[in-house]
């Protein structure tokens, strides 16, 4: 009878199944095997729903990427080393190995690779280079003027799609448009260009890191509206300390670290204050964090005198603006935090306690869980992660500003909810939040590429958030008891 009871507490099949089990018991038959078969059948029936619940947002993200890829499909010039080699080979076939060749490209990592690839092929073939310009039209003009004075204007110029538009080439009749050789073009989505995808990932990283803390907050049935303002407070705290006490643009690594740790301490304190007001004063988290949103923004404006804070050393830019293996540092940090958070929430007591509190706070309290302490801890973590987001943003932009983080709280909450975390608490996954953050970022980036105005973007993102909450409510209403 215990086995039957376990099945009845989670009914997932028709009543006739249970009637058959009861009939077998009444007949005195051993139905344990049948119960296991039926339970396995129920499990198979629920597998599809579980797969959709766990990975449905991944399918949505892939669908969005495919959609924006099709909508932004245009003829694109190839870039990088292979493009440079291709252009050099075409020039050699057309003009031979005795021609004088100039390479002219704009600034940029891919353009530098283009020039390197072209130089490699020209060098192997013994082609004489008139010179290589990596810079601006003014740099190309200076090079051409020098070559014109010595009568050594190039027979052809290896250019990218952008440098081919430089007006300076039109000043020399010898350099007609057919002598400007640029990479071949082929259909390719603007959305899927490497620099665009890296930009999306880099911009998403800051939102996503803050969303780790927000996910924990929402799982325990609370909300934190102060994350954007706390981010701004961290930004001006770190940069103001470096400017005023660390030596400004000549600040040492120790001073930079001290400023960052001070900012993290201040924002952790702000989160802890939210936790105290929530747990000791028993105020609603909506009101507490709304008040902190105003307080933190006001403090950021007071510290910075409502001005952007510059005079920051170049070393400060490494954390948020540097890269490792071609991947921006914030993206590596984001992946690290999500790997840790996924393990903590799924494999440790910490995670199980948060889910218990969110599922039923009173039951958790009766089980001996110190509910108020855990709430305090979660809000402190949320403040610290918001502070880290502020440091990363300041590092990437190489400045602090009290206006940073405006409306971030809504973006972060949207990412968490779209990722499947229920506003009712007790349900949510870090992997889902990460996917939700990318869904929001992909929608915004895709609309930017399509030229959608900002007001329409706000309408779309607001609708996405509303649909996500509506879907959560529908799922809860139809979820088996």
Write the layout of secondary structure elements.
Elements: H1 2-9, H2 15-26, H3 32-71, E1 73-77, H4 80-95, E2 100-106, H5 109-125, E3 128-135, H6 137-149, E4 156-159, E5 180-181, E6 185-189, H7 194-219, H8 227-245, H9 253-279, H10 285-304, H11 317-321, E7 323-324, E8 327-328, H12 329-347, H13 349-359, H14 361-366, H15 371-397, H16 408-418, H17 430-449, H18 454-478
Parallel strand pairs: 2-3, 2-4, 4-5
Antiparallel strand pairs: 1-6, 7-8
Helix pairs in contact: 3-17, 4-5, 7-12, 7-15, 7-16, 7-17, 8-9, 8-10, 8-15, 9-10, 9-15, 12-13, 16-17, 16-18
Order of helices and strands: HHHEHEHEHEEEHHHHHEEHHHHHHH
> Ranges with pLDDT <50 over ≥5 residues?
1-22, 28-45
Q: Mean pLDDT, as a whole number? A: 86
Rounded Rg: 30 Å
- Give the strand order of the largest sheet, numbering strands 1, 2, ... along the chain: 3-2-4-5
User: DSSP strand (E) fraction?
Assistant: 5-15%
Assign the structural class, choosing from mainly alpha, mainly beta, alpha/beta, alpha+beta, or little secondary structure: alpha/beta
The oligomeric status of these chains comes to single chain
Indicate the overall shape: elongated
Q: Work out the count of structural domains.
A: 3
The CATH level-2 architecture of the largest domain is identified as Orthogonal Bundle
Top CATH class of the largest domain: Mainly Alpha
Proportion in helices: 55-70%
Major β-sheet annotation: 4 strands, parallel
Count every beta strand, where a strand is a DSSP E run of 2 or more residues.
Answer: 8
The CATH topology of the largest domain corresponds to ABC transporter involved in vitamin B12 uptake, BtuC
Number of discrete helical segments: 18
N-end to C-end Cα span: 20 Å
